[in-house]
Amino acid sequence: MKTRSFTHTINPFCAVIPGQVIGAVGVGRVVDSKHPDFKIGDLVSGWLSWAEYTIVRDCQLLQKLDANMGFPLSYYAGGVLGHAGLAAYGGLFKVCKPKKGEKVFVSAASGSVGNLVGQYAKLFGCYVVGCAGTKEKVDLLKETIGFDAAFNYKEETNFNAALQRYFPEGIDIYFDNVGGEMLEAAVQNMNLFGRIAVCGVISEYTDTQKKAKPDIVQVIYKRIKIEGFLAIDLNDIYPEFVSTTVQYLQTDKLKVIEDMSYGVESIPSAFVDIFRGNNIGKKVVKIAED
């Protein structure tokens, strides 16, 4: 088969140079292979690119998928059974180590990671509050996903007061996806020995002036643990994550929220939508029918 192909060696944590192939987590089908572990027709997930075809030199970046599981392929494209799910599960259970009944706050809670954090925490037995940027998203968190409460941060003039209202007894765990002023307010409302998992700082990515300045005196005297992490740090719990998540999916205990776009030409606008807060759940681009 003659295809348009791209060879790439990409560091996902470096800036993209104009003209360079853009890497992305994705799912694909092998159309040609010179590697003994990957045969034509195999389904794979891993680090691919913004393209219809990709040549992967380092096959450690790929893993085979079991098509017999019966889940949509989008689940593996960085979604509930991919990096977003692993970040949510590992950030909550490995970084924050929750106890049943603890109070959990999740920012950007309708996003690909945040909505799963809230669901894992609820299934574990925690009280969960999330924030999001529209009424539609807030309603989704409360009525569909099952958060105990949620609020629209754009309607709040004082984040500290808002968190006091929703957590009158304080926050035990804050899963941070936004950074900035929300992180500062969360620190003010943390309980003794509170834990903060820093997964993302969406408020700071496009505004270099927005840098969180948490009250370090509060951090010290409350003995707050603040830990940043990446999904790749959590590979040691990958089997546990997959086993637990598959069980939840098969028993309909976990809801999957996806925002699907179609065609390679839709990738740029889909990417920009994430930074504008236009997506709900995991943003996925479907390049071709399987």
UniProtKB/TrEMBL annotation:
Q: Name one Pfam family in it.
A: ADH_N_2
Q: Which residues form a coiled coil?
A: none
Q: Does the record carry Aminoacyl-tRNA synthetase as a key word?
A: no
Domain of life according to the entry: Eukaryota
- The answer to whether the entry has keyword Oxidoreductase is yes
**Keyword terms:** Oxidoreductase
Q: Residues in domain Enoyl reductase (ER)?
A: 2-285
- Protein's name according to its UniProt entry: Enoyl reductase (ER) domain-containing protein
